[in-house]
From TrEMBL:
Alphabetically ordered keywords of this record: Hydrolase
NCBIfam families: pgl
Function: Hydrolysis of 6-phosphogluconolactone to 6-phosphogluconate.
Record field: catalytic activity: 6-phospho-D-glucono-1,5-lactone + H2O = 6-phospho-D-gluconate + H(+)
Molecular function terms from GO: 6-phosphogluconolactonase activity
Protein name: 6-phosphogluconolactonase
Amino acid sequence: MKSYIYSTATETAHALIKHLVGMMEREPDRTFYFAFSGGSTPSLMFDIWANEYKEVTPWKRMRIYWVDERCVPMEDSESNYGTMRRLLLDEVGMPGEFVFPIFGDYPPEAEAKRYSAQVCRTVPLWRGFPTFDAVLLGAGDDGHTSSIFPGQEYLLASFHPYEVSVNPYNGQQRIAMTGCLLFAARKLVFFITGKNKANVVRDILDSGDTGPAAYVAHHAEDVEIFMDAQAEKASGTM
Ligand code: 6PG
């Protein structure tokens, strides 16, 4: 696990964007498969990406998927797809054929199956599983990630690529990437900012598997943590 700490959330976002663009620059002849999480932290990255890195990013060599989605229409402000489309994809003119959204307004169980099949069909297989080049993860202050909340750790052992989870705080259903895809990814990249994330950062940086995010970070092969000083300092681990 490699940690990268920056003084502000904005600087962390810049570093993460440069890291992802750098991956693609180092292999200029191939297409990259990325899965993005939702929530507020990625929104900062999408906004900066659209405004300051539009010209240097090889958009047509990217294929965009989602880690998770809230079961709401894409027009809803809660929609992870709708948010990324508004802040980044529409701004940079990303061709629709390179974007593979989860449809939050479809019946959840059916959509989890549909999206699982679509990912298995369109993301290159490696070691028998669809393998993303990078899966961008956030972490909730309760230790959740990929919309897998504490108490739903069974989803980390699922062999269904996506399953329905439930946000325990409001009962909202979500479509969530499960352990079989998370652990198949070439790289998991956490992007965590803010002092309210102190506990989950401590869990991730320590050795205790105290929640889904920490478990994923401790059991995946290649994990990078991009965080700001607020999250790191509050965690008291460095
Ligand atoms: C979601 C996310 C979720 C997120 C964490 C952190 O759809 O909400 O995928 O797992 O990564 O909740 O969210 P923030 O970045 O808003 O703190």
